[in-house]
User: Fold these one by one.
Assistant:
Number 1:
Amino acid sequence: MVIIKATTINKYFTVPTKFHVLKDVSVEVDEGEFISIVGKSGCGKSTLLYILSTMDTDFTGDFQIAGESLIGKSQKYLAHLRNKSIGFVFQFHYLLPEFTALENVMVPALKLNEQSYEVIKKSALDKLELLGIPELANKQANKLSGGQQQRVAIARSLINNPMIIIGDEPTGNLDSENAQIVIQLFKSLTKEQKQTIIIVTHDLDIPKITDRTIEMSDGRII
C-alpha cells in the first residue's frame, strides 16, 4: 500500500531572490518502508522532507497521504493530521527538560485527547519498554544522556501509533554507537510495527541499512 505519494512537486524560495529549490519531484513510499534521503547541503532534501511531513504547504503539485490529497487543506486540519498520523524525530530531541521521560512521551497523546490519562500513561510506559529504557520513566529529561534523550524522543514519536515517522538528521548529535542503536530501532519498527520511516541524513552508514535511498542533487531526485 502506498502511504505517501508526491507528484510533480515544485518549490520556490523568494527571499532574498527567487530560487527554484525543488524541480518536478515525484516520489512514492510504501507502508513499512524505511527510506533515507541523501545529498549535498542545499540539494533540497530537507525541503522535500518538510513537504512530506505537511509542515510546508507552499508548493505546486499534488501530495497524498494514504490516498487522501492534502492540497488545499486548512492548517488546523494538517496540524491534527500531524499529531495523529506523523511522528517526528529531529537532530535535537526537543524534550521538555523539567518533565520526566514518561511525561515527555505522553505529551502528544494528551494533546490529541482521544484516550484517558491512565491509558496514555500505560501506552507511554509500553513505548519506553519497546525502546529498551523503561527504567528511565521517572527520570527528568535534563538528567539523561544524549543517546537516552534521543530514544525518549523516538518513544514520544510513537505514542499516537502514527503511520509515518519523519526524521531530520535524527543521529546527527549522537556518537557512532548510539547512532547505530537508533538506526537499528528504526529498522525494527518498520519490520515489527509496520511503520513507514523517512529520514534525511548525512551519515554514510545509514543508507546501507535502509530499504531504499533517495539521492537528490540540485533540487531533483537522481
Note: The first helix runs from residue 45 to 52.
Number 2:
Amino acid sequence: MTEDQFRQLLPDASPQAGVFFGPLAAAMREFGIEGPLREAAFLAQVLHESARLTRLEESFRYSPPRLQAVFGKYFPTAASACAYAGQPQKIANRVYASRMGNGDEASGDGWRFRGRGLLQITGRSNYRHCGAELGLDLLSDPDRLAQPDGACRSAAWFWANANLNAWADEGDILAITRAINGGSNGLAERIALYQVCLGALQ
C-alpha cells in the first residue's frame, strides 16, 4: 500500500490520512497484513469501526432511547436509562462491569478500559493481553490506544491474533465482521468499503 493509494480512500480526510498512513502501514507490515486482499479487508474494517479514522475511543454519549436500544439488558426501563443517560463514565462502568477482566461498577474499570483503537480493544483482560504482546503498559496508560501508533498496532495485533488474514484471503467479509463485531452490524458499509479499498489497492 502506498500513501497515494491510502489517500484515495480518504479524499475528504487528508489530515487524518497524513497522520495515520505511517503508523498504519508499519503495523500492517509487522503483523503480515500484506497484499491487496488482506490490506483491503483490514482497511475496510478499520475505516468502518473508526468512522474513517475520526473516532479512536467509545464515547458513550447516549440518549435514553438509544441507551435502551444498544444496552437494553442493562437498562430495561425508561427510568433506568434516564438515570444514566448523558453520563458516559457511569454508563461504561455499568455495561462493562464484572466482565472482560474488569472489576465491579464502582471500580471504574468499565470507563478506564472502554473500547479504544481502530478496532476497539475493550476490557482489562484484553488491554493486558494486547499490551503484553506489543510491549506496552496499557494497564497504566490505557489512553495509549487512542494515539495513532497504539491505535494502529493494536488493530493489526487483534487482526493477527484472531487469524483474520485467513478469512481475508477468502474475501469473506461477513466472517471477519462477526469476529470483530460479534454480529453483522454495518455489514453493507463494510462490504462497500472493501470494494473501494480493493479497487484502490489493485
Note: The chain has two domains: 3-56+146-201, 64-112.
